[in-house]
Amino acid sequence: MRGAGELAERGAAASGSLKERVEHVERIILLEVLRKHDNNKTSAAKELAITREGLHKKLKQLGIG
């Protein structure tokens, strides 16, 4: 996973409101973790310390998957 500074820069480079920028960074993190785990949502959720259901909710909220 990329460093927090790089993620912050990528979020700052995005246009829009704070909420839109935070969602942009969340989307980057989720996609990278899913890629790392070969799209295994259970493993990705464990790494992110959230439930599998919470991961599904976040993916739906961000329009991923």
Describe the overall structure.
With 65 residues, the protein is mostly helical. The chain has one domain (4-62): Orthogonal Bundle (Arc Repressor Mutant, subunit A), CATH 1.10.10. 74% of the residues lie in helices and 0% in strands. The protein contains four helices and no strands.
Secondary-structure map with pairings?
Blueprint: H1 4-13, H2 18-36, H3 41-48, H4 52-62
Helix pairs in contact: 1-2, 2-3, 3-4
**Helical amount among residues, as a percent range?**
over 70%
Based on CA atoms alone, the radius of gyration comes out at 12 Å
The end-to-end distance, rounded to whole angstroms, is: 20 Å
Derived from helix and strand composition plus strand pairing, the structural class reads mainly alpha
CATH class: Mainly Alpha
- The domain tally reads 1
The main β sheet shows up as: none
Q: What does the overall shape look like? A: globular
In the CATH hierarchy, the architecture is Orthogonal Bundle
- Percent strand: under 5%
CATH topology: Arc Repressor Mutant, subunit A
Mean pLDDT: 88
Helix-strand topology string: HHHH
Number of strands: 0
Q: State the low-pLDDT regions, or none.
A: none
* Number of helical elements: 4
